[in-house]
Structures are given as structure tokens and as C-alpha cells.
Automatic annotation (TrEMBL):
Localization (cell): Cytoplasm
Role, per record: Catalyzes the NAD-dependent oxidation of 2-aminomuconic semialdehyde of the kynurenine metabolic pathway in L-tryptophan degradation.
Top-level taxonomy: Eukaryota, Metazoa, Chordata, Craniata, Vertebrata
Catalytic activity: 2-aminomuconate 6-semialdehyde + NAD(+) + H2O = (2Z,4E)-2-aminomuconate + NADH + 2 H(+)
Gene (UniProt): Aldh8a1
Gene Ontology CC entries for this record: cytoplasm
Name of the protein described by the UniProt record: 2-aminomuconic semialdehyde dehydrogenase
Source species: Ploceus nigricollis
Active site annotation, chain numbering: E255
EC top class, as a word: oxidoreductase
Domain (Aldehyde dehydrogenase): residue spans on this chain: 25-485
Family, similarity comment: Belongs to the aldehyde dehydrogenase family.
UniProt-listed Enzyme Commission number(s): 1.2.1.32
């Protein structure tokens, strides 16, 4: 780009030791709804990560010795500041990620605010264990201390939401952090850095290094002074992180992909099930790790379900994300859009039926969005269980619907993938709901609802969907070291 052009771009800087620091090289970041480069993101590497880890290490003694109450007040202040700027954060998240402004306003940014408030509160309520051995004259108790510098790596689908879900518990527990957001969605993390000083977060407690996974991410994972890594992203990247961190025996929390089933029995309340399952399939363009992508419908209601489900899906309008009447925004990138479209082509080639969306219905876009990465919500029926569309994470607005006969059969088929993150079960038979939930290989099971979360409880996946859990108690345990102390009296 020419100088004049590059001047118009938003240029981000790393945030290290409480200061914004320019980088020697940058990568382009696109606005997914127009296809234009609009922002330049530092292309950090070893050197920048080294500086950030040093700043975090230097800040650790003071931050870790503050009381939970002092840290809690700072987290609450940060929550207030983000909330005060909610609209600006929502606009930035929508522009950077392609998600609708409505979703950013009602889900992403409110949840980022809540993440800080939640851990500001929960950090005050932990208790440790104590046991007695009267015959030995001993008492035992446990104590927990922060670990040190935490490396936090987050994906592009829910940028500030998922990054703050890691920063909040890490610093509430007294750790200092080096965070690396996705290179495709870095803007809201950079905006948050501007509020840290006013919130009272001391320099070096939160450092943010922008850049790619291969360069900045790996430098963080390989750094000997970063004993724990909390990662949310794909299973493939998690394998690489596990390999690279193995020589240092790092503590890892891995929140990964899913291939989440919805199981719909013939006694389900379809008036609730259908709109909720459309939402669980297409919310945030299907780019949520918890989105439904395999819908098993009991044979007796299969054709009625398909008809009503497709009619409901067609109500979801695709278009300019800043238009509040739009439900489906742009996908994250051109490459990702191609990948998602290819899955639909493969399903068609295998003989499945595409009932609406990609390749079937016309997609009309406003003039300014012609080069954006848009796709209609797509429903595919009669896909074979072994098809890649039923096995692999698509991570786009595509959902597959198939029929089943018995409870036993559907449990086996729902469990027949490598992932195990989330499942939904729809039935009015309470016994069946419990039986099925119990046998699903899935870290989360929602019955007769979707995405209702109590942050106190464990969040995370089984099998290829992850290792470890996050939540009030789980994050506290991950971000602290426990010690057992015995006293003889
Ligand atoms: P990704 O794995 O490509 O990237 C995630 C992050 O890891 C990015 O910041 C990236 O730069 C970084 N990274 C990439 N390679 C790295 C390496 N070698 N070393 C260190 N860091 C590296 O994932 P994505 O495409 O950004 O996100 C989509 C994926 O995230 C999907 O699979 C989705 O299911 C998953 N996800 C899971 C959850 C969950 O809570 N389980 C939540 C959201 C998204």
C-alpha cells in the first residue's frame, strides 16, 4: 500500500510492561464484511515475547502479594470501564470479526464485562481443605498460591469474550500474564489495554503480544519462564502446543473443537426446540465451538421437523453485520469461507440433500458488502454418519439433519465422533433425558435448552475437545499451585 493508504489504517501496538510499543513488522487484518485490509497487527516474535515475559515476571512479586480483595476491586473497575465503552467495543468486535453488531452488543462484550466481575467475586469465596489426625496429634491443611507468568492464547470466534475468560481468573489468582489473541481479531484486546492503567492494573500484570501462532504463539509456548498455558483453539494447534511444551512439562488447559449433536426425540416440544436448534446451529455464523452441527431426529417426526426447521432457518437473514435486522454476518476469512463451502459441495457429491442455503438459494448483498465473506445458513439432510460433514468440525453456518429410531442407537451414533464438547437433548420424558445425558461423551449436555451457562460450573470437553475444565473452582485450581501442610502439636 501507498503511504497515504497505510496512514488511514488502524495500527496496533504491543502492550508490554504498561506501555504501548511499536513492532518492527506488521501483518494485515481484514474487515470480513467488506474484504478490505483495515488494520495492521504487530507480527511479534521471540524478541517481543521475551520482553513481555520479563515484564510479567518483574510484576509478579507485587501483584501476587496483594490481597484477593485488592485484586477484586481492580477487576471490578476494569469491568466498569469496559462496560462504559460497550458500544465502541461492540462496533470494533463486529468490524474485526464479521459477527453481527447485535451479537457483539448482547453476547461478546457483556460477557467480557461479566468475566471480570465474576472472577472478582468468586476469588473471594474459595476455601481450602483441612483434616485432622487426632491419634498422631496432627492437622493437615492445604494452601494455594499463584503459579507465576501465565501464557494465554485465544481464537478468533469470540475474541474479547474468550481472552477475558482467561485473563480474569489468571490475574484474580495473583498470576501475571502474557496474552496472545488471534492475529485475525486483535483490536478489542488492544482497546482493553488502554483501560488497564485507569483500572489500577499495575504495569506488567497484563501484557499483550500480537502476532501469528507460528511466531508469537510458539515463542510463548516455548518460553521456559511461562509454566502454564491456557489455550482455546483447534485440536490441531493443541497437539502442536502439547509437543512444543513437553520439554518444559508445562501445565496445559486446552479448550478445543467440537462436533456437537442435538438429539430430538418424538416427544420434544418442537415449538421451543426448532427456534433454539436454528440458533444453536447458526449463531455467530456457526462459529462457536458449542454450535450444533449434527441433528438426530426421531423417525416419526423427521419430515415434519425438516419442514419446520428449514422454514425457521430461512428467517435468518444474511448481510451487513452492522445492520441490526441481520442475524448472520460474515465468516472470518476468505479461506475459511472456501473451506466451509467445500464441505457443502462434498455432501452434495455424496448424495446428501441441501435443503436451503449455499448453492440453493440466492444470496443478495448490499453494494458495500459484495466482497465480504458471506454465506447463507445451510441445512443438509440425509448425510451418512461416516461423511466428513458428520465427522469433522465445519465451524460455519452449516448443519446436518439425520433420522434415528431408538435411544440406544442415537447414543451410539452421537458418540461416534472424535470430539466430545457439547450436546443437546430434546424430550419431555425426564427419565430419558437423564439416561441419555449420562451416557453422552460430552463435557456439557443441555436438555431442552442451549448455551445456558452458570460460570461456577466446569466448562470443557472430553476426547479431542480438550483437556481440563474452566469455571470458578476449575480455573482457580488451574491458575494456582496447591500445597499440603502438616502441623504436629
Ligand atoms: P487456531 O488453533 O488456529 O488458533 C487459536 C490460537 O492459537 C490463535 O491465537 C493462533 O494464533 C494460535 N496458534 C496457532 N498456531 C499456534 C502454535 N503453533 N503455537 C501457539 N499458538 C498457536 O484456532 P482458531 O481457528 O483461531 O479458532 C477456531 C477453533 O477454536 C475451533 O476449532 C473452535 O472449536 C475452537 N474453539 C474452542 C472453544 C472451546 O472453548 N472449547 C471456544 C472457541 C473456539
Amino acid at each position: 500500500p501507498t503511504m497515504a493508504h497505510s496512514k488511514a489504517l488502524l495500527v496496533l501496538e504491543n502492550f508490554i510492561g504498561g506501555k504501548f510499543i511499536p513492532c518492527s513488522s506488521y501483518i494485515d487484518s481484514y474487515n470480513p464484511s467488506t474484504g478490505d485490509v483495515y488494520c495492521r497487527v504487530p507480527d511479534s516474535g521471540k524478541e517481543e515475547v521475551e520482553a513481555a515475559v520479563k515484564a510479567a515476571k518483574d510484576a509478579f512479586p507485587i501483584w501476587s502479594s496483594k490481597s484477593p480483595m485488592e485484586r477484586s476491586q481492580i477487576l471490578n473497575k476494569l469491568a466498569d470501564l469496559i462496560e462504559h465503552d460497550l458500544e465502541a467495543f461492540a462496533q470494533a468486535e463486529s468490524k474485526d470479526q464479521g459477527k453481527t453488531i447485535t451479537f457483539a452488543r448482547t453476547v461478546d462484550i457483556p460477557r467480557a464485562v461479566h468475566n471480570f466481575r465474576f472472577f472478582a467475586s468468586s476469588i473471594l469465596h474459595h476455601i481450602t481443605e483441612c483434616t485432622e489426625m487426632p491419634t498422631m496429634g496432627c492437622v493437615h491443611y492445604t494452601s494455594r498460591t499463584p503459579v507465576g507468568v501465565a501464557g494465554l492464547i485465544s481464537p478468533w470466534n469470540l475474541p474479547l469474550y474468550l481472552l477475558t475468560w482467561k485473563i480474569a481468573p489468571a490475574i484474580a489468582c495473583g498470576n501475571t500474564v502474557v496474552a496472545k489473541p488471534s492475529e485475525m481479531t486483535s483490536v478489542t484486546a488492544w482497546m482493553m489495554c488502554k483501560l488497564l492503567e485507569e483500572a489500577g492494573v499495575p504495569p506488567g500484570v497484563v501484557n499483550v503480544v500480537f502476532g501469528t501462532g507460528a511466531k508469537a504463539g510458539e515463542a510463548l509456548v516455548c518460553h521456559p519462564d511461562v509454566p502454564l498455558i491456557s489455550f482455546t483453539g483447534s485440536t490441531l494447534t493443541a497437539q502442536r502446543i502439547t509437543e512444543k511444551s513437553a520439554p518444559h512439562c508445562k501445565r496445559l488447559s486446552l479448550e478445543l473443537g467440537g462436533k456437537n449433536p442435538a438429539i430430538i426425540f418424538d416427544d420434544a416440544d418442537l415449538s421451543q426446540c426448532i427456534p433454539t436448534t436454528v440458533r444453536s446451529s447458526f449463531a455467530n455464523q456457526g462459529e462457536i465451538c458449542l454450535c450444533t452441527s449434527r441433528i438426530f431426529v426421531q423417525r416419526g417426526i423427521y419430515s415434519e421437523f425438516l419442514k419446520r426447521f428449514v422454514a425457521e432457518a430461512k428467517k435468518w437473514k444474511t448481510g451487513n453485520p452492522s445492520d441490526p435486522t441481520i442475524s448472520v454476518g460474515a465468516l472470518i476469512s476468505k479461506e475459511h469461507l472456501e473451506k466451509v463451502r467445500n464441505y457443502v459441495k462434498k455432501a452434495q457429491a455424496e448424495g446428501a440433500r441441501v435443503l436451503c442455503g449455499e448453492g440453493v438459494d440466492p444470496l443478495a448483498l448490499p453494494p458495500g458488502n459484495q466482497k465480504g465473506y458471506f454465506m447463507l445458513p445451510t441445512v443438509i439432510a440425509d448425510v451418512k454418519d461416516e461423511s466428513c460433514c458428520m465427522q469433522e468440525e465445519i465451524f460455519g453456518p452449516v448443519t446436518c439433519v439425520v433420522a434415528f429410531d431408538t435411544e440406544e442407537e442415537v447414543i451410539r451414533r452421537a458418540n461416534g465422533v472424535k470430539y466430545g464438547l457439547a450436546a443437546t437433548v430434546w424430550s419431555s420424558n425426564v427419565g430419558r433425558v437423564h439416561r441419555v445425558a449420562h451416557r453422552l461423551q460430552s463435557g456439557l449436555v443441555w436438555t431442552n435448552c442451549w448455551l445456558v451457562r452458570d460460570l461456577n460450573l466446569p466448562f470443557g470437553g472430553m476426547k479431542a475437545s480438550g483437556i481440563g475444565r474452566e469455571g470458578a473452582k476449575d480455573s482457580y485450581e488451574f491458575f494456582t499451585e496447591v500445597k499440603t501442610i502438616t502441623i504436629k502439636h
